[in-house]
Amino acid sequence: MDRNNFFNLLLPSIPPLDGTHHKGQAGRIGIVGGSLEYTGAPYFAGMAALKVGADLVHIFCSNPAATVIKSYSPELIVHPLLDKLDAIKEISPWLERLHVIVIGPGLGRDPKIFNVVSDLIKLISEKQIPLIIDADGLFLITENPELIRNFTSPIILTPNKIEFERLSCKLNGLTGLQELNKNVTLLRKGMTDEFYCFNTDLEWKNKEAGSGRRCGGQGDLLSGSIATFLHWTIASREKINLDIPVDKMLLATSLSCFAASSLIRTCNAKAFQVKGRSMLATDMVEYIHEAFTELYGQ
């Protein structure tokens, strides 16, 4: 499909701002990440989800990160639970409220936290909540691919170049990933974003906009944006009509990744035009509304 076809399929899924929706209906997103060293990543993912149009974002982090993340923005609901002894018991009731979960931004690689997140992934699978895995979440999956074998709900991996190479080496290329779970889709980030959706015609490449600046936080903005778009496209999947026979969940996944890729690349280009070499992810956040309006209208 070409770019215009993607936009035409996507637009009906964007909730209208006509006053007919209640709080939470446009998206309740969970971000699992945030550690002593990394507090910015979950903030960027959460703010991107909100700025795209989600109503609520919950961040599940370790205790040392909580106060810092709270200080960044009062918009984020922060739960310092990942390093508690009864973490899964504490987190589990919140999962019922969430439409999409992102695992990885600022997660770190503490083995104890990884054990908790591994159990959490199994619980998310049981509850069939759509899942996006990024950053150190991908490191965990590379170490233990079996964690995502039984997923039946949409699951999106968003590796950069190094993460993709590490994952491919572990799984013997994309074929190994397909054999692991046919429901897994992959958005490979780079100069050109590439989306892989196995055995379908939904794969695509996106090299529009963007810039040569590779500051930290851009991938977190992308994962948070995907989360909101994914909720919208899944909720509206029966309204999305495509001439070819295709699984509607996979179509929703493809559309959400394309929408977020286009949005963040446009934000990147706009911020870079003003800030140049000094551009930061914080600058990109300020252009989400402008880029969204330019691409998708109000």
Structural summary, described in words:
The chain contains 12 helices and 9 strands. The protein is α/β, with parallel strands linked by helices and 298 residues long. Strands 3-2-1-4-5-6-7-8-9 form a 9-stranded mixed sheet, sandwiched between helices. Helix 4 packs parallel to helix 5 and helix 10 crosses helix 12. The longest helix has 28 residues. The radius of gyration is 18 Å and the shape is globular. It starts with a helix and ends with a helix.
Q: What ranges have pLDDT less than 50 throughout 5 or more consecutive residues?
A: none
The number of strands is 9
- Form type: globular
Distance between the termini: 24 Å
What integer value in Å does the Rg equal? 18 Å
Strands in their spatial order, largest beta sheet: 3-2-1-4-5-6-7-8-9
Kindly name the structural category.
Answer: alpha/beta
Element pattern in H and E = HEHEHEHEHEHEHHEEEHHHH
Beta-strand content estimate: 5-15%
What helical percentage do the residues reach?
A: 40-55%
User: Total helix count?
Assistant: 12
Estimate the mean pLDDT confidence: 94
The major β-sheet equals: 9 strands, mixed
Strand and helix map with partners:
Layout (H helix, E strand, L loop, with lengths): L2 H8 L17 E5 L7 H13 L3 E6 L1 H10 L4 E4 L6 H9 L4 E4 L7 H17 L3 E3 L2 H8 L11 E3 L3 H11 L2 H7 L3 E5 L4 E4 L7 E3 L11 H18 L12 H28 L5 H5 L2 H9 L2
Parallel strand pairs: 1-2, 1-4, 2-3, 4-5, 5-6, 6-7
Antiparallel strand pairs: 7-8, 8-9
Short overview:
The protein is α/β, with parallel strands linked by helices and 298 residues long. 48% of the residues lie in helices and 12% in strands. It has twelve helices and nine strands.
